[in-house]
Amino acid sequence: MNTPHPQIHPTANFTPYSSSPRNPLIFFIHQFPRKPKITRYTYSSPHYNTRTLFKTLIKCTENSDSNPPKWERLLPKNIISAEKILRSIAGATSSPICQFISSPTTFLHSVDPRIKLAWLLVLVVLPARSHIYMRFGLITFLAILSAWILPRQVWVDQLGRTALLSGILFLMLGLGADGVPMVVQSRTPPPSMMGLPNIPPSFGGYSYLLFKLGPLQFTRKGLSLASTTACLTFSIFQSASLCLTTTTPEQLAFALQWFMKPLAYVGVPVAEVILTLLLSLRFINLVFDEIRIVALGIVSRRINWQQLATMETVDVFFTYIRRIFKNIFNHAEQITQAMTVRGFRGDSSSHKIYFSSASSALIPNVVSLATLVGLIGAAAWSEYILI
């Protein structure tokens, strides 16, 4: 008799959140007709049993390799994401490092801009010529002055970012200056071979190696290089921030023109330099505003970044950068049209520039000059006295 054989229909069940799409859940389900005519005699093969056919269920599960190990599950995820980057840009302070803050009026607002430029020059030279204690004292002085002069929401943000950058430079240069010890081989035999006593150690306790961290070592050379670089970076950024937030672009242009006047007799285009400086200080504020405003516009649209592919996220960032440059070029064109309307024809020497008429006070100028002379004297004293 012709016995109806069972029909096997393979069906695949794909889980939507499976981390391994190549290993689906596959079921082989045996289907028989409703009323099968099973004869009295069946196959006697031990590999083919009718009763076991109804209980057969082959299920392919995921491999154990797809499960992440414990150390990988303990690592923090989503530390750097597109949404966090844009939110940090959009939530940045509205008073960047180059923007003038008119209120509240502080002590530095009344100081002559020429004295401020002299301070900037001294703060660039001092970290490289002073003692290490003087460098850290200079950093402390600038931090206290920033906290006293600038508003709280400004100096907290600026000091935090500048201190983080300086700290990273300090650690990298301190541990990397002498990270790999030099292999030095003496050209003379040791004293014991020549019958001479060993050289006694230093009585003052001098040690070139300060401490060692695995293969890295922190030496006196690394400390000097790291402290100089970190102090120089901190002083440049923070002194520029204090000068730009308490001085208008017109006052800075007037001070620079006063210092560069003698160079005009040797053919230096002083007028073009001053006009370029004035336009740059005005234009940098627009760049900061455009970066923050465009980022705020993207964040306000509440994009679901988890549903975007990698190339789609990159395309959003390219759109963001393209929009920034487009707005900046539009602002540059508007500035050009405004200068043309006001009579600028390309000759900076014949174009009249009106500087700020704000005058400085006598007492702040005297105090700032005395402090500058005292700082230079303290740096010279630390160079020759502190060893």
TrEMBL record:
CDD domains: EcfT. InterPro entries: ABC/ECF_trnsptr_transmembrane. It is found in: Membrane. Its main location: membrane. Keywords: Membrane, Transmembrane, Transmembrane helix. It is a multi-pass membrane protein. GO terms for cellular component: chloroplast; plasma membrane. The chain crosses the membrane at residues 132-151, 163-184, 262-284, 362-381. Pfam families: CbiQ (PF02361). PANTHER family: PROTEIN ABCI12, CHLOROPLASTIC (PTHR33514:SF13). This is Uncharacterized protein. It comes from Deinandra increscens subsp. villosa.
